[in-house]
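Dear colleague,

Thank you for sharing your sequence with our group. We've completed the structure prediction you requested, and as agreed, I am returning the results in plain text so they can be pasted directly into your records. Please verify that the sequence below matches your submission; if there's any discrepancy, let me know and we will rerun it promptly.
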Amino acid sequence: MADADLDVVIRQLARQLHTGLMTRAKERRDRFNGLAAKAKGKETGDRFKMMAKATMEQAIAAAKRLQMSADNVADSYARSIRIAASTPVAAKVEKKAAKEKPVKKAKKAKAKKAK
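Please find the predicted structure tokens below.
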């Protein structure tokens, strides 16, 4: 990964986060569906089923936002690197400043002569 471009690394990390998020959401969905199956009342079972469905819907929405955000960041980084690489760098010419006598010494000398 030392040679990898950062935009590729960003996308890879986003994929890992997406996978982890969806895995946890499926586990929670399965837990709610299990509770719905064990529920004694119809209303309780329906409530757990709705919670399972809502969990997956919200996880999918969060995963889409995560992926979109990561893509935007990776594209922005790649674009800025591409622009920076194509911009020519102007060579700076160093100018040596001529050594001048300090102004304070000249003023003091004139003040002494005036007395």
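Summary note from our side: The chain is about 80% helix and 0% strand.

Kind regards,
the structure core
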